[in-house]
Each structure stands twice: as C-alpha cells, then as structure tokens.
Amino acid sequence: MGCVNVKKQAKLRIKVTPSITPVTDESRKPSYELPSSSPSDYEPLSFLGAGGFAEVTACKHIPTHSIRAQKKIPKSKIKSYHMHSQNTLKEAYFLESLDHPNIIKFFEHFDDRDNYYLITEICKGNSLYSHLAKSGKLSEKKVRETMFQILQAVEYLHEKNIVHRDIKPENILLTLPDGCCMKISDIGSADQITKKNKLSGCFGSVFYLAPEILKGEYDEKVDIWSCGVMMWVLITGKKPYEEIDAKSVKEKIGQKPLQPKQFELSGLSCDGLDFMRKLLEVDSGKRISATDALKHKWFEDISKEHE
C-alpha cells in the first residue's frame, strides 16, 4: 500500500486507456467463487473519521494480517440514488472497476443486517483538508503538484464516463504525512453519464458546486469547476464564498460565481492564474476538459518530468 513520490509516480504516467463502455456485472464475476468476507474478518484498530452518514475505521484484515480502512454505512441512511442495483452500492460498483494510482484502492465490500462495508487501502497522511488546516495555505509549487495528480484521476474517471460530483480537499487523501501522493476518495456521490443523458440533482459540498448544477442538467465539467474552487482554496487558504448557510451560498453561485482575481491571488504566476480561470469558466461548454488541463503551460515542468 506504499506510494511512490510525485516524481517517481509521474514517470508512471503511462496513459491509462479504460474502456468507455461501462463494465457489466457479468464481466466482473471471476471464473471461480471467492470466499465471502464479513465484519468478523476485520479487527477494529482505531477511528479515522466520519462523514455525513458513514464512519471510517482502521482495521486489521485477519486472514492476511494487513491494515485496511473500513467504511461503514448504515442501511437506514441509504437512499435509492445511492444504489446501482438492488444489492449493490454505486460507490462499491464504481470502485470495483477503477484502477488508478491517484484513486483510492478498493479491496472488497459486503454487508450485514444493518450496514454496508467498503474496504479500501489506508492512507497514513490524513486528508488534504487536514494538511491545509495546519499550513494555512500551500505554495504554488505544491498546489501545482497536487492539481496535476488530481486531474490525472479526474481524466481517468471521465474517460470511464464517471462524474465524481464531490471533489474537495476533504475527499483527497495523502498516502503519507509528507503529502507527496494524492488519492481521490469517497465517490458515494458519483454517477455515470452517457452521450444521450446528462446528470441532474444537487450533490456534494455546496461551496464546490458548479453554477450549472443549480440550473438543472449538467455533465462531467462540474468536476472541473470543483477542481478550480479547490485550487483557489489551496492557494488562498480561504473559503470561496463569505456566505455560511447553504441557501445563501447557492444564491451567490447563481448570481456571482467564484472568479479568480489577480489581487486576491498575489504571488500566483500568470500561467497559474490563466489555468485557474480556465477551470472556473462559468460557461461549461467553454470550460477546459481534464485532458486539456493536463496539457496547460502551468504544468510544463511537471510534464517534462513525466516523459
């Protein structure tokens, strides 16, 4: 479960070419039956954190003696939109099909009478949000390295037609305390998009919502907007909107969404400012894609290291 540092990982940026066609349930079934896991296979070690309706615990996987993270989700809090099929959480369904160095590694899932359990790798560096809270804000160099890794994962998700819908510092995990390797986690709000059908519904943290989400249908570009807001937060160390309650924040996003201003981003290079503006383009049709974002001049030095 160790993770290489940024430079070593960069050299591994061999283009992942996932199938655009969604993986079917049948194709995922192994040619042999694996023994079913249960909560009794895991020994709780320590509490890691809790979200809106789930808690995460560090556990020892007894059969392999490995340390993993166990996310427990009460069935009583599950809504129909959380489910891919009658017995499978969307989060588990998507995680099973993903394999990318900047996305949390998934091991298995199971359930009992009261809860669903998702088992993933454990990241020892806590979240990007916790890292930011300690440092106040990040240097442009650190933000550039972070955004490059996150956008690689976003590009991969979008190529698989998956929209995360909740990208924010709290959902970016650091594999080690030095924060050199980032992993997107918590895809419980994710959904799959098709060429014919866009998505709808308001998911994710209100501060990171793209303007089009409040108007109705939207596509994968909402993740790009969230990345832009996250970049702004990492550079400034501030909230993107002064409003506190969700209703007021939504009104502000609808009337005057976040736009990068040079005087608020003192010290950010011209290339960095241009990059952020492309992420935070209000017109989603003109907003940059993850693939094109990775080719931006701001990443020129990192891209050379990855060759």
From TrEMBL:
PROSITE patterns: PROTEIN_KINASE_DOM, PROTEIN_KINASE_ST
EC number per UniProt: 2.7.11.1
Residue intervals of the Protein kinase domain: 42-299
Enzyme class: transferase
GO MF annotation terms: ATP binding; metal ion binding; protein serine/threonine kinase activity
Residue stretches in coiled coil: none
Region (Disordered): 22-41
Cofactor field: Mg(2+)
Location of cross-link Glycyl lysine isopeptide (Lys-Gly) (interchain with G-Cter in SUMO2): K168
Pfam family, one: Pkinase
Active site: D166 (proton acceptor)
InterPro entries: Aur-like, Kinase-like_dom_sf, Prot_kinase_dom, Ser/Thr_kinase_AS
Keywords of the record: ATP-binding, Calcium, Kinase, Metal-binding, Nucleotide-binding, Repeat, Serine/threonine-protein kinase, Transferase
Binding-site positions, ATP: K71, E170, N171, D186
UniProt record similarity statement: Belongs to the protein kinase superfamily. Ser/Thr protein kinase family. CDPK subfamily.
Quaternary structure, from the entry: Monomer.
The protein's name in its UniProt record: non-specific serine/threonine protein kinase
